[in-house]
Write a structure and sequence with these properties.
With about 350 residues, the chain is of the alpha/beta class. It is built from nine helices and 15 strands. The strands form four sheets. The chain has a seven-stranded mixed sheet, with helices on both faces. The longest helix is centred in the C-terminal third of the chain and has 33 residues. It is globular.
Length: about 350
């Protein structure tokens, strides 16, 4: 089955619809025949939304108006079940841009988490690309698979999830020199530098998403020490919204500040030696004590409890099952509408079953 989520057109049964109430609260429903959306501000029958154009305004039984829109991918990832912290849209957009993720690309992702970044990568590579995701924990893989299927309405055929360590599992999934891009979203990406270098094509790119300055420093030094990559480039993205209403134009009181650092490097050709940059010496040396501060334990690795992960995985699987059922119903209806009606019996003028 291929991903068949509708992006435009009138609402149909099985579509996800985002309802925004009078106070700006958003609720997402999957259109189901006979179902009703209940709120303390009245009810809205799902059947009343079917065949309405995207962007319609509907009234509840109490007269309150709700804006009905298909949720954007950014809306979905911010509200989907989470087993691990997600890559926020502002960072996902930078990953897609800085890594130059293109349609048809072969991409490796390590640290699938809750599947948020997987969704952005699948959208960017298109149906002709391939995404191979790796996750050490089965619980996180279950949550991610449920969320991806829930969004697309089916499991993408160009996506695989391998449970295991990237260093050990990558050679069995991706032959050397076959990968265009590698995205590392994990606690210790420096452990995967050699495996990444082997998998990437010459000129391919690795991008790492890390949370702390010590992680950023260590992965940069590991990339330099490998001798297989160009000089790393590091950045972070800060997003500040603005309040614009009449003459009241000012920054929002709250902003999305630091969420993580991004560091990128390109794969050198085999045997190539990176020319030395002419610059002043810097204090780049580090001691064994410094390395100890970079260990996963010292970095404060926090993980969700097994009980919470099992609950989140159940929620993701339930949403995925509902999405697949809705997709199958749409495909069945489409097949029924396209099936030609039976002809009248030979030698008679009796009408066929459809009354013709």
């Amino acid at each position: 089955m291929t991903a068949t989520r509708r992006q435009s057109g009138p609402f149909v049964v099985g579509d996800k619809v985002q309802l925004t109430g009078p106070k700006g609260k958003m609720n997402t429903v999957v259109l189901t025949p006979g179902a009703v959306f209940h709120t303390h501000r009245g009810m809205i029958a799902h059947d009343d939304l079917v065949d309405l154009p995207d962007g319609s305004v509907v009234a509840s039984t109490t007269g309150d108006e709700y804006l009905a829109l298909r949720p954007l991918l950014s809306d979905f990832v911010m509200s989907m079940p989470r087993g691990a912290a997600i890559v926020y849209p502002k960072d996902a957009a930078q990953i897609v841009a800085q890594a130059d993720i293109f349609p048809g690309a072969t991409v490796v992702e390590a640290g699938v988490g809750s599947g948020a970044l997987s969704l952005w990568l699948l959208r960017a590579i298109g149906p002709e690309g391939r995404l191979a995701s790796f996750e050490r924990r089965q619980e996180f893989a279950d949550v991610a698979e449920g969320n991806v299927v829930s969004f697309f309405g089916a499991e993408p055929q160009n996506w695989t999830v391998t449970v295991g360590d990237l260093v050990e599992s990558l050679p069995g999934v991706m032959p050397d020199d076959t990968v265009d891009r590698v995205v590392l979203d994990m606690l210790a990406p420096w452990e995967c530098v050699d495996a990444t270098a082997a998998a990437l094509k010459p000129g391919g790119l690795v991008i790492c998403y890390v949370a702390t300055a010590t992680q950023l420093s260590r992965v940069a030094e590991a990339l330099r020490a490998s001798g297989a990559f160009t000089e790393p480039d590091s950045s972070e993205t800060l997003v500040r919204g603005w309040h614009v209403e009449g003459l009241a134009v000012r920054p929002d009181h709250r902003m999305i500040g630091h969420t993580g650092f991004l560091i990128t490097a390109r794969r050198l050709a085999p045997g190539a030696v990176l020319p030395q940059l002419k610059r002043r010496p810097s204090k780049s040396d580090y001691s064994d004590e410094d390395v100890e501060l970079w260990t996963p334990g010292a970095l404060g690795d926090r993980s969700a409890s097994d009980k919470k992960l099992r609950k989140t995985a159940r929620q993701a699987r339930t949403a995925a099952t509902a999405a697949v059922a809705a997709t199958e119903a749409i495909e069945a209806d489409a097949a029924g509408a396209a099936r030609p009606a039976p002809d009248a019996a030979p030698g008679t003028s009796e009408p066929t079953d459809d009354g013709r």
